């Protein structure tokens, strides 16, 4: 049997679109088959697949759709592109045909199996006409520097909070937890009196409320966490520079918001890698991209030693 | 309106209408007279009035002054009617036979079915103390045979098929006993069994498969002793199956009490948004009042209905509310003059999301993939915890503060699949299962909602088998004619693990036949643009973020769509191959001839399994060419810009190097005017 993530992405690609209920039902069935994956939450898989750029979710209407296939060139990776988006069987077959023994284009395909997530399909190409030729065969787009333009349009976190649903009182009487920016933990809250990010665990998905001087907004979890960190002036974004590019590191509890995460992922094509410091690292992120992500989160990047980076 | 004391002739018609109605179908019919049905027939206000009325009408027609010949008038009347032509459509002897059946219905389970016991009951019914057995034996069996001939002789079996036996067991008294093995009240109680298994009328074709679960249900059914005997006795298989098939085929999918009234269902609710609050929701079957005071445990609860089909939700004052306590005490009925509402609390009560009330509501079973809360009695706590440890997703949490007294609430319970081992029956509500018939569950469905369900190959659904069917060892399953090897629980088979080829598939399980198709790909149909999900951003291009004047763009995956969005403006890098001896950046003026080293291969790429062949160099002002010198194969030339060459500072060392490397690569450069100009200038410099 295929790896669950690959089979799942294959199914999503063949279906093309559907409801959140469809997604959950298929996910529960597929990931529940194996004890190893049985506890994977559908919401986690949505986060992963949207971060990788394969899927978009419309939470307001409870719908999803796969994204258009796209060959995304990776920065400073030696003519290497990653396949992002819909991956139906017909597209995979065309890719195999284009890179097989009979192929005329200068292309090498490599598949990487991350710990979490579907296979990452890399295409190394000789010249730009080769990769453009492949994109044409696949009916895909070619993006020369997706992380670049995406980082340039990231909205400041304060604007994103203001655009969230407002004037919603935090719920009372059912398990409430307050996010501690200092300890990076969720702690039981007897009430929702102090400002901060609250988590309400009810049936369905967990819900999050950000209470601040400007009012209370129901927010996406990741957005809320980074808004709370910014409000507390807590700097948790680290950058480890390499000879070429570097690793952007965030605490596990503070995974990057949707588009910031995708921007970082599109630098390597790989899902974030867990470290033994309870953090995750986004690989091959150029310093300029890291700075834009940090600015959008109202953060100042600190280096590996914890010092602010100019 | 029925007269409270019908005459003998009126009783004949009433009994025929109730027990042998014109129905144009061949179903088994029973002359199942008992006290309850007689009370119903006369719409009695006091229990037993119906039976008293019947006996009162019958006694004058019997030889009560000579008990040894008690039933002779009845037999005489029956023979006369049977031999007359034309004859009345309704046999006149029905009331007389009815009292003999009434006596049989009053035999307790402990009495056994001996003739002695039967005659004792018959004497009581007719108030004829010295009635002898011979008086019955010599006459009544013949009248039952006439009844059978009348029923079976109807055109098109319009009054059903008689269940009066040809040979009675026990001899003689077996005739009336045969008719009350299954009473009307039993027939109504069967609806509870049908509902538990979520059967439909169409399942009647497979009634033989229902006999085993029906026998299992009988012990807790409240059926009459005769009905229990009929269903349990191995020798009665054919009759029992015919009965189940007949009743199920006519079932309207509503549960009824012993008087034939519909029963409303109560669901326990838990509101978890805002202040956590327990409550209840009751269905309102047809005929139930829109507002009524329902009694329970000596108390009253007023229910009002503002929408069809349901009473308005009731919120309890707290976990100590008396109605909540009553609901959780076991089985409870809330009664009003027009109906009954029922709730039965097991030791484990799952509560799942319910859109009707916008809260959690009690369910019979947990549904896979849904977040449930579970109420557990203390004596089941250990067993439930063990089951959840092994089979639920992590994250379930005990909530003692929200639990009613004597119970523990556990929240965030997800159970996606049934355990492969057999679990205790009390834990059944925590085991996802199907109730009525085998079903294809889960899988990666691609479409085909109408006639044929289509699944992605390797994502074939699971075959779920109801417990009652999987518990029958003789039942086997196959797919496409190939035997399926069942797991120990026999309740779920993962068809995706059977390496099925793409194509149509047929699963056969006992009498059931399930079909689906698997495919490796689907014909793509472009999604309408309005249904494509995207992230819309409001760029601050002249307006405040989020305002109407901002410039919206949509991000979809790794592409940008929008009115003025351009995502392909990045400069193209020059891909320079790794592994050369040296690299020289050559400018369009002779002042740039700069050697540079190749960078290290990025470690993350090699960890990912990629061997980078090139590294990137971006164009910068003045850079025209990158010349690459190899160890054994000379030079190669990579163009950067289209600028023509020009001399900078003549006779400098840099210019000499510029000329030397261009001259060295002269023969391998592109055959263009641009490169020819560079070569000419290099040779001019070299030649002084």
Give a brief description.
By secondary structure, chain A is α+β, with helices and mostly antiparallel strands.
Structural features, described:
The complex is a heterodimer of chains A (310) and B (688). By secondary structure, chain A is α+β, with helices and mostly antiparallel strands. Chain A is built from ten helices and 19 strands. Chain A folds into three domains: 1-144, no CATH class; 165-231, no CATH class; 238-303, no CATH class. In chain A, the strands form four sheets. Chain A has a six-stranded antiparallel sheet, covered by helices on one side. In chain A, helix 6 packs antiparallel against helix 9 (258-265). The longest helix of chain A has 13 residues, at 20-32. Chain A starts with a helix and ends in a 7-residue tail after the last strand. The mean pLDDT of chain A is 88. Chain B has 688 residues and is of the alpha+beta class. Helix content of chain B is 27%, strand content 22%. Chain B contains 19 helices and 32 strands. In chain B, the strands form eight sheets. In chain B, strands 3, 4, 7, 8, 9, 10, 11, 12, 13 and 14 form a ten-stranded mixed sheet that branches. In chain B, a hairpin with a 5-residue loop joins strand 31 and strand 32. In chain B, helix 5 (94-105) packs across helix 6 (115-126) and helix 11 crosses helix 13 (237-249). The model of chain B is unreliable at 541-549 (pLDDT under 50). The interface between A and B is large, with 89 and 80 residues.
């Amino acid at each position: 049997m295929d790896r669950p993530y690959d089979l799942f992405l294959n199914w999503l690609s063949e279906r093309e679109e559907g409801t959140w209920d469809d997604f959950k039902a298929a996910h529960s069935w597929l990931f529940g088959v194996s004890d190893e994956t049985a506890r994977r939450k559908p919401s986690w898989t949505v986060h992963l697949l949207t971060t990788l750029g394969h899927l978009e979710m419309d939470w307001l209407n409870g719908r999803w759709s796969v994204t258009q296939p796209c060959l995304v060139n990776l920065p400073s990776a030696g003519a290497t592109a990653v396949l992002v988006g819909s991956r139906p069987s017909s597209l995979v077959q065309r890719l195999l045909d284009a890179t097989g023994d009979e192929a005329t284009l200068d292309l090498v395909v490599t598949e990487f199996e991350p710990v979490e997530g579907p296979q990452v399909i890399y295409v190394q190409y000789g010249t730009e006409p080769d990769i453009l030729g492949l994109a044409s065969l696949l009916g895909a787009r070619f993006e020369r520097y997706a992380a670049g333009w995406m980082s340039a349009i990231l909205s400041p976190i304060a604007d994103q909070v203001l655009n969230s649903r407002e004037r919603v009182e935090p719920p009372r009487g059912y398990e409430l937890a307050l996010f501690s920016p200092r300890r990076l933990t969720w702690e039981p809250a007897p009430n929702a009196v102090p400002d901060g990010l609250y988590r309400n665990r009810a049936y369905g998905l967990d819900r999050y409320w950000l209470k601040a001087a400007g009012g209370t907004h129901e927010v996406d979890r990741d957005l809320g966490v980074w808004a709370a960190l910014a409000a507390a002036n807590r700097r948790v974004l680290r950058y480890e520079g390499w000879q070429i590019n570097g690793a952007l590191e965030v605490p596990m509890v503070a995974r990057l918001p949707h588009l910031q995460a995708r921007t970082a992922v599109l630098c390597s094509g790989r899902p974030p890698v867990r470290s033994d410091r309870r953090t995750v690292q986004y690989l091959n992120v150029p310093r300029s991209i890291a700075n834009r992500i940090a600015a959008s989160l109202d953060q100042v990047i600190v280096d590996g030693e914890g010092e602010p980076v100019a | 309106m029925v007269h409270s004391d019908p005459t003998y002739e009126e009783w004949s018609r009433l009994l025929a209408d109730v027990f042998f109605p014109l129905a144009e179908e061949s179903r088994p019919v029973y002359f199942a007279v008992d006290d309850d049905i007689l009370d119903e027939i006369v719409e009695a206000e006091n229990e037993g009035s119906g039976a008293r009325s019947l006996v009162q009408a019958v006694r004058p027609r019997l030889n009560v002054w000579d008990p040894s010949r008690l039933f002779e008038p009845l037999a005489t009347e029956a023979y006369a009617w049977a031999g007359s032509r034309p004859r009345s459509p309704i046999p006149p002897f029905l009331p007389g036979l009815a009292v003999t059946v009434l006596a049989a219905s009053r035999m307790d389970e402990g009495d056994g079915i001996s003739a002695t016991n039967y005659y004792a009951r018959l004497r009581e019914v007719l108030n004829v103390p010295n009635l002898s057995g011979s008086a019955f034996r010599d006459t009544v069996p013949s009248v039952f045979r006439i009844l059978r001939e009348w029923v079976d002789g109807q055109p098109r079996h319009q009054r059903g098929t008689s269940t009066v036996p040809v040979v009675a067991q026990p001899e003689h008294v077996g005739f009336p006993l045969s008719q009350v093995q299954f009473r009307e009240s039993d027939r109504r109680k069967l609806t509870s069994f049908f509902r538990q298994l979520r059967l439909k009328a169409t399942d009647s074709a497979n009634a033989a498969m229902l006999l085993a679960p029906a026998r299992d249900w009988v012990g807790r059914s409240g059926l009459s002793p005769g009905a229990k005997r009929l269903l349990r006795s191995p020798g009665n298989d054919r009759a029992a199956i015919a009965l189940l098939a007949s009743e199920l085929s006519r079932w309207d999918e509503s549960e009824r009490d012993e008087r034939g009234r519909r029963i409303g269902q109560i669901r326990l609710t838990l509101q978890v948004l805002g202040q956590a609050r327990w409550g209840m929701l009751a269905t309102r079957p047809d005929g139930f009042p829109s507002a009524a005071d329902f009694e329970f445990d000596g108390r009253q609860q007023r229910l009002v209905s503002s929408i069809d089909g349901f009473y308005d939700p009731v919120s309890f004052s707290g976990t100590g509310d008396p109605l909540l306590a009553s609901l959780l005490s076991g089985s409870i009925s809330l009664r009003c003059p027009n109906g009954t509402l029922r709730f039965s609390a097991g030791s484990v009560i799952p509560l799942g999301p319910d859109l009707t009330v916008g809260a959690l509501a009690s369910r019979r079973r947990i549904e896979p993939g849904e977040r449930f809360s579970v109420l557990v009695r203390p004596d089941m706590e250990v067993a439930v915890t063990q089951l959840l440890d092994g089979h639920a997703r992590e994250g379930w949490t005990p909530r003692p503060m929200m639990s009613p007294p004597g119970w523990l609430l556990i929240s965030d319970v997800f159970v996606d699949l049934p355990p492969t081992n057999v679990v205790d029956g009390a834990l059944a509500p925590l085991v996802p299962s199907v109730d009525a018939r085998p079903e294809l569950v889960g899988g990666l469905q691609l479409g085909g909602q109408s006639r044929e369900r289509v699944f992605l190959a390797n994502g074939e659904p699971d075959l779920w088998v109801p417990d009652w069917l999987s518990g029958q060892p003789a039942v086997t399953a196959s797919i496409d004619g190939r035997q399926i090897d069942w797991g120990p629980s026999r309740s779920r088979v993962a068809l995706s693990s059977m390496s099925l080829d793409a194509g149509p598939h047929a699963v056969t399980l006992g009498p059931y036949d399930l079909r689906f198709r698997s495919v490796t790909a689907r014909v793509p149909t472009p999604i309408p643009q309005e249904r494509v999900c995207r992230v819309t951003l409001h760029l601050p291009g002249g307006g405040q973020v989020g305002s109407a004047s901002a410039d919206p763009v949509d991000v979809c995956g790794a592409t940008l769509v929008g009115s003025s969005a351009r995502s392909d403006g990045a400069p193209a890098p020059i891909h320079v191959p790794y592994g050369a001896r040296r690299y020289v950046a050559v400018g369009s003026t002779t002042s740039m001839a700069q050697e540079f080293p190749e960078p290290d291969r990025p470690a993350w790429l090699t960890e990912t399994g990629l061997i980078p062949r090139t590294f990137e160099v971006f164009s910068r002002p003045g850079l025209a060419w990158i010349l690459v010198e190899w160890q054994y194969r000379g030079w190669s030339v990579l163009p950067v810009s289209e600028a023509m060459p020009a001399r900078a500072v003549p006779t400098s060392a840099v210019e000499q190097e510029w000329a030397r490397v261009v001259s060295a690569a002269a023969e391998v450069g592109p055959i263009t005017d641009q490169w020819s100009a560079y070569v000419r200038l290099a040779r001019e410099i070299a030649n002084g």
